[in-house]
């Protein structure tokens, strides 16, 4: 198995894990932050429905459909 041998890294039991470049680290942390912001945003919006505390059709108020007599 040839793997380039450039840059530093850590070898354990014959497997070398190379040190990531700075832009990989920064991009990974940025995307991780976006993921957690999205998860927390959706939990704020959908949490009660997912947890079973509220039905999805409850709490929308009157949308002007009129009375169905």
Automatic annotation (TrEMBL):
- Keywords annotated in UniProt: Membrane, Transmembrane, Transmembrane helix
InterPro entries from the UniProt entry? NDUFB2_plant/fungi
Record keyword Transmembrane present: yes
Transport: is it a keyword of this entry? no
Q: Which domain of life is it from?
A: Eukaryota
Taking the record's annotation, the residue ranges forming a coiled coil are none
Which spans are transmembrane here?
Answer: 22-41
GO cellular component entries: mitochondrial inner membrane; respiratory chain complex I
Cited PANTHER family: NADH DEHYDROGENASE [UBIQUINONE] 1 BETA SUBCOMPLEX SUBUNIT 2, NADH DEHYDROGENASE [UBIQUINONE] 1 BETA SUBCOMPLEX SUBUNIT 2-LIKE
Protein name, please?
A: NADH dehydrogenase [ubiquinone] 1 beta subcomplex subunit 2
List the source organism: Microthlaspi erraticum
């Amino acid at each position: 198995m040839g793997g380039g041998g450039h840059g530093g890294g850590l070898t354990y039991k014959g497997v070398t894990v190379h040190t990531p470049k700075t832009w990989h680290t920064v991009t990974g942390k940025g995307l991780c932050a976006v993921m957690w912001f999205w998860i927390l945003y959706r939990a704020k919006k959908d949490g009660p429905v997912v947890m079973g505390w509220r039905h999805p059709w409850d709490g929308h108020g009157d949308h002007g459909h009129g009375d169905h007599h």
